Automatic annotation (TrEMBL):
The keyword NADP does not apply. Catalyzes the reversible conversion of ribose-5-phosphate to ribulose 5-phosphate. Belongs to the ribose 5-phosphate isomerase family. This is Ribose-5-phosphate isomerase A. It comes from Jiella sonneratiae. PANTHER family: RIBOSE-5-PHOSPHATE ISOMERASE 3, CHLOROPLASTIC-RELATED. Keywords: Isomerase.
Amino acid sequence: MANAEELKRAAAEAALDFVEDKMALGIGTGTTAEAFVRALAQRVRGGLKVTGVATSERTERLCQELSIPMATLETLPRLDLTVDGADEIDPGLRLLKGGGGALLREKIVAKASKRMIVVADAAKLVDELGAFPLPIEINGFGMVATYLAIQEATEALGLSGDLTLRRRGEEPFITDSGHLILDADFGRIPDPQALSRALHEVPGVVEHGLFLGLASDALVASSDGVRHLTV
Ligand SMILES: O=C(CO)[C@H](O)[C@H](O)COP(=O)(O)O
């Protein structure tokens, strides 16, 4: 029986089959995305030519340490492919992301890509999104008012649950773009599209971790091998 690390590595390595020479690549955040970075670095050392755009400072640092040529979305605004992890994947390849706090940049990079492939172990597959707390990135200004507005908007959809300010130790967690994160413990989310719209209507909400209609493929590893799911 393979352990979680081995499964993440298997999924990440399978994504290399989709990487072609001279591609502009979005590179995700998290432990599975990092397994992809390490596998990619090996190919780059072997002569593969790609340019990466990182979805977080953490991924940027790792890519630079491993000598993967990097650019920014400002200089490379259209990408061929993004490879990223997820916290939950539903049967329609709708994702819940942001466990690592990189959801805003991850979503911008995914949207800038012709194709987004999710890499994950099979524990991330769910029938319905929401068991994992949904990260909501908010501006620090008026955060209590934003908190209350989110509560009101989501209660109107029949969703209730704690909204918890994410912390790193004693301090609030600050994203790479300088915002805060509320983790929303809604439980099952029957209509992710309606929730997405409602959250975007709240001033102060910068982004949320529902990735709808962005992923076209998922490479999901279990002890039976890596399955390729598509929409
Ligand atoms: O969305 C993310 C970071 O913001 C990650 O992709 C997600 O949390 C999965 O991480 P891991 O591969 O470590 O399980």
